[in-house]
Design goal:
Layout (H helix, E strand, L loop, with lengths): L1 H17 L8 E7 L1 H5 L2 H13 L1 E7 L2 H9 L5 E4 L2 H9 L3 E17 L12 H11 L3 E3 L5 H12 L12 E3 L4 H11 L3 E4 H6 L6 E5 L6 E9 L9 H12 L1 H9 L1 E2 L2 E2 L2 E2 L3
Parallel strand pairs: 1-2, 1-3, 5-6
Antiparallel strand pairs: 3-9, 4-7, 4-8, 4-9, 4-12, 10-11
Helix pairs in contact: 10-11
Organism: Magnetovibrio blakemorei
Protein name: Sulfate transporter
Keywords: Signal
Length: about 270
């Protein structure tokens, strides 16, 4: 019996050695990121190019920025790729991340019914838009999910001196969902919402909705990437994770980000220094 076991073991080792490298699973890293990078199609475009160059697969956990940060803090990701600078800086200063790198940017836009019941199309600033929506009690749908988009929305309300939660269940609603679901709700109820431009371009159910305000300086939407600290989580794949970051901020990675378009429109603009 022992002889047979030894023979089977030797055969298994021999056969394992004969398997070509291409037949083995690639090394992989896990990236906690936002829904906008996934839903826009950006990752579907650039990640195969990174894998082809390095042999490293990238498994993406696409959630809101707040949840992505919590997953990285729990050690469930090797790399964090999100879009809320204050939270990113805190992630690093608290020791969860090694260093933040600029990667790219797009912008947020405010969308609403083509009939524009709050009369915001003539507004000069995003704060004026929020004030008009609250004053007219026009329906507004928030993601309400602690995402980067939700954090930006809360910042706009604060800048306008408005607490929308005081009107929760009246004209202000929280979807507690991703961007696509939130836009669907806004479309269905004829409401306003804030969204990143990339998701808006990719969104197919626009009937009755349009961009009502864009271009305000506080609607800029920068993205950063951070390697999770191996001092906090020794299992983090530091070398492979850093390779991914280095590729993203390299001329090649930045060129691929710039080349990604949807309906002929560039969605993200490189910002690596």
């Amino acid at each position: 019996m022992r002889l047979l076991s030894s023979i089977f073991l030797a055969a298994a080792v021999l056969l394992g050695g004969l398997v070509s490298p291409d037949a083995r699973a690639n090394e992989f890293i896990t990236v906690a990121s936002t829904t906008s990078t996934q839903n826009s199609g950006l990752f579907g475009y650039i990640l195969p190019k990174f894998t082809a160059k390095t042999g490293i697969d990238v498994h993406v956990i696409a959630v809101g920025t707040g949840q992505a940060i919590r997953q990285a803090e729990h050690g469930d990701a090797d790399v964090l790729f999100v879009h809320h600078r204050k939270s990113e800086d805190k992630f690093v200063s608290d020791g969860w991340g090694v260093k933040r790198y600029d990667v790219m940017m797009n912008d947020f836009v405010l969308v609403g019914p083509v009939t524009d019941p709050a009369h915001v199309k003539s507004a000069n600033t995003a704060e004026e838009v929020m004030t008009a929506i609250a004053k007219t009690e026009a329906p507004f749908v928030s993601r309400g999910d602690d995402s980067g988009t939700h954090k930006r929305e809360k910042g706009l309300w604060a800048a306008a001196g408005i607490d929308p939660k005081a009107s929760s269940g009246k004209w202000y609603s929280e979807a507690g969902a991703g961007m696509g679901a939130t836009l669907n709700i806004a479309q269905g109820m004829g409401g306003y919402a804030i969204t990143d431009r990339g998701t808006w371009i990719a969104f197919k159910n626009k009937d009755g909705l349009e961009i009502v305000h864009q271009g305000s300086p506080n609607l800029a939407n920068p993205y950063g990437v951070i390697l999770v600290s191996a001092e906090r989580h020794p299992h983090v794949k530091t070398e492979a994770g850093q390779k991914f970051i280095d590729w993203l901020i390299s001329p090649e990675g930045q060129s691929e980000i710039a080349a990604f378009k949807l309906n002929g429109e560039q969605l993200f603009f490189p910002t690596a220094k």
